[in-house]
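ARCHIVE ENTRY
Sequence with per-residue tokens
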Amino acid sequence: MTRHESDTDTGLPIPGPPVFASPADERRHRKQRLTAALRLFGKYGYGEGISGHISVRDPEHPDHFWVNPFGVSFNRLRVADLICVDDTGTVVEGHHRLNTSAFVIHAPIHTMRPDVTAAAHGHTVHSRALSSLGRLLVPLDQESAAFYQQQVLYEDYEGPSVTVAQGRDMAQKLGDHRALLLKHHGLVTVGESIEEAVHWFFTYETCAQVQLLASAAGTPQPLTHEQALAAAEGFGAPELARFSFELLWDEITHEHPDLLDE
């Protein structure tokens, strides 16, 4: 794996995305980053029983995606535990079972959004709280500006996501945005890389916390339209999101090297 230099709009010395010698090398990279992301979900308390999943498209078979299996703790997951699923919901690689809601939510996104490499979904505390109010993020700071005009509220709650029709409706409502806040449910974020999708998820959750705290304390003063657009140029840059994950990758692989077991 090598890296190109990246000339970004952020003005920061961000290296470019990795370049791989083969699909097998890229698949291994994606599976390792996916597993690290799932361990990070566990570390930061994003687990909620069997709920929550992250998927990444297979680099060789674009109608397949890798995802965490049903009933395995985020805190225990290894690369060896991942499963690969085709567009019919059949597990084509791996030895664990598939979470039905993982297929229902992720498969339509990967089908309808060929630009999306990865999607993250969880039932996190602050996103759930914000969704229960029927509100999206307001650009109160630079970080939340990353989602300015890049988020959608999904209000058609019909119970747990177990039907393909409901998953398709979610993907259609997501459109070309990077975040879908599910009322009474949780959050979905997507990206052109696994790193980007997961960074957006972490950022959205902390921004939801900031908004709830600010609203409880008084009357927040959001950025103006012009300020939000200016902030989004930097904090909403996909390359910044991708590289920001690298810090979390270093952190979690240092703390839990067993996650890389194949």
User: Anything to note?
Assistant: The longest helix spans residues 194-217.
